[in-house]
């Protein structure tokens, strides 16, 4: 049922319902992800992060990896969660979405754990967690508030690592310094220098 109202000029306007707004946001985040511009490999990122952020990144990767294993082992659980969102597009494609969400969470958990493509993996997981918090966990708050609390903490950490990056103890920083080492004079070039 669509609501029709008049604006200040007397023109009729149709108000969007909640399902249409959520589908528009999903499309927006998907397009934003695909057209995202990556920084050059040699660009220095936030390498002055404290060690506790690295520990939180590793813990976040472990939590996402564990949750993906749970979803892969019991796909019907994830399918019922997706169907309980009440969004028609999700309910119709619950089996396909459960496969995509489970393996995306597994892959992103491994990437965040190792510190490889941390910003991109965090950005991919943010829409999944937003849907999980607002459409699944908020409905089941009476049964299990632990899932909601963990989901909110994971969403906050994903936001932190989407902005901050992976830090010094990560695969991103290793490959960044490895790439730069090939262009700079180092110990290996001395061995091949002819006098």
List keywords for this structure.
195 residues; mainly alpha
Explain what this protein looks like in three dimensions.
The protein is mainly alpha-helical. The chain has one domain. It has nine helices and two strands; from the N terminus they run ββααααααααα. The protein has a two-stranded antiparallel ribbon with strand order 1-2. The N and C termini lie far apart (84 Å).
How much β-strand is present in the residues? under 5%
The outline comes out as: elongated
Look at the helices and sheets and give the structural class: mainly alpha
Q: Termini separation (Å)?
A: 84 Å
Helix content: 55-70%
Biggest β-sheet description: 2 strands, antiparallel
Q: Which ranges are low-confidence, i.e. pLDDT below 50, for 5 or more consecutive residues?
A: 37-43
The average pLDDT score comes to 75
Number of helices: 9
The number of strands is 2
- Rg from Cα: 22 Å
Helix and strand element order: EEHHHHHHHHH
Q: Numbering strands along the chain, what is their spatial order in the largest sheet?
A: 1-2
How many domains make up the coordinates? 1
Write the layout of secondary structure elements.
Layout: E1 3-6, E2 12-15, H1 18-34, H2 51-73, H3 75-83, H4 88-92, H5 94-114, H6 118-137, H7 145-164, H8 171-181, H9 187-191
Antiparallel strand pairs: 1-2
Helix pairs in contact: 2-3, 2-5, 2-7, 3-5, 5-6, 6-7
